[in-house]
Specification:
about 120 residues, alpha+beta, 6 strands, about 45% strand, globular
């Protein structure tokens, strides 16, 4: 079902983040995706290539699993919005927008918020 495919895309994303895995991140995201949020006192607005490079460069100890909680999923036709909390290392709440194209769900934008936990 679409819901399971959406959840699989999100799982690929969070596992790719946890493992600092370039190929998993590129699989989960559309090539023209943007990653946006405040970090380190400034606004970050990254292309997919910039985001993947920073994930790989900043990985201290990649984790084998991806601890996360999906808080909400809202789907309308070939679009979806997913709110997920990533619990590995720093804790982020991500709002992901996804688009289904050619039978495949991909993240087209990620809006992130660093949480104090």
């Amino acid at each position: 079902t679409d819901l399971s495919l959406i959840e699989a895309c999100v799982s690929t994303y969070v596992t790719g983040m946890a493992r600092a895995d370039d190929s998993m991140l590129r699989e989960a995201f559309h090539p023209k995706a943007n990653v946006i949020g405040h970090f380190g006192g400034g606004l970050e607005w990254s292309t997919l290539a910039e985001f993947v490079a920073s994930c790989v460069a900043e990985a201290n100890l990649p984790m084998p699993r991806a601890p996360h909680e999906i808080e909400a999923v809202s789907r309308a036709g070939d679009t979806a919005v997913v709110r997920v909390v990533n619990l590995g290392g720093l804790t982020f709440r991500d709002t992901l927008t996804l688009l289904k194209d050619a039978g495949r769900w991909q993240i087209v934008s990620k809006l992130f918020l660093l949480l104090d936990r």
